[in-house]
Hints:
Elements: E1 4-11, E2 20-27, E3 32-36, H1 43-50, E4 58-63, E5 66-67, H2 73-79, E6 80-83, H3 94-99, H4 107-116, H5 120-124, H6 143-155, E7 161-165, H7 173-186, E8 191-196, E9 207-212, E10 215-220, H8 222-227
Parallel strand pairs: 3-8, 3-9, 6-7, 7-8
Antiparallel strand pairs: 1-2, 1-4, 4-5, 9-10
Bound molecules: adenosine-5'-diphosphate (2 copies).
Protein name: ABC transporter ATP-binding protein/permease
Subcellular location: Cell membrane
Domain ABC transporter: 4-229
Amino acid sequence: RPSLVFDNVVFGYDPDRTILHGLSFEVPAGGQFAIVGPSGAGKSTIARLLFRFYDPWQGRILIDGQEITGVTQESLRAHIGIVPQDSVLFNDTIGYNIGYGRGGASSDDVLAASRDAAILPFIERLPKGFDTEVGERGLKLSGGEKQRVAIARTLVKNPPILLLDEATSALDSRTEQDILRTLKRVSEHRTSLSIAHRLSTIADADRILVLDHGRLAEQGTHGQLLSAR
Ligand code: ADP
Ligand code: ADP
């Protein structure tokens, strides 16, 4: 049974302007899918619908077979771990930020939770220790360090679905590729959906959906999409 289904979803913010024009796709359990498309294509709108900031005008969104119109935002948040482009961290230590929500903030708590979630390789590649203060909004860290902490904070909760919404798009490509490599090691069997505007960000996805003006323009693997150009 697919983990995530968009079934003919029609949606717009204003009554006279449709943004998603009957969008359909299915992400199988354990699948690593990606959505690319130019700015304004409707990528973030998909994320907003997934968390029920809005409901579709028409069509259905299903998670693990259940239509989400009957699901609270709170339980959606427990089911889908999202990492946005500009994560806001708590003005505390790295350990506190990662342990937050898992009932503990000591190094031992974080390591135990990381072991449970099978993400130790990601935690071990954090460039700074758990005791490091992140500062106001995480400003004492570099952009890459901040996003690593934000991704770790989400992974440690072991959400059934991981949603990366331009999570590495603001970083230089070397930092991005470094994070993605480590992420891949701990996400082999995790259902994930990565939203990005650069094809290189999501080159490793099982399947890439190309969104254009709220419609699926093409889909395939990275290799298939490149050879179609
Ligand atoms: P498309 O350009 O893809 O045909 P439309 O703008 O015709 O998209 O809208 C598709 C469907 O969305 C229509 O059949 C209509 O029933 C529904 N729809 C359009 N606007 C609204 C709205 N403001 N509220 C609810 N449903 C709407
Ligand atoms: P993307 O993430 O692909 O850049 P978005 O999903 O953010 O695209 O936006 C798709 C379209 O919806 C854009 O034309 C944008 O201007 C419009 N849009 C986004 N948010 C709103 C909103 N809150 N109210 C009205 N229009 C919006």
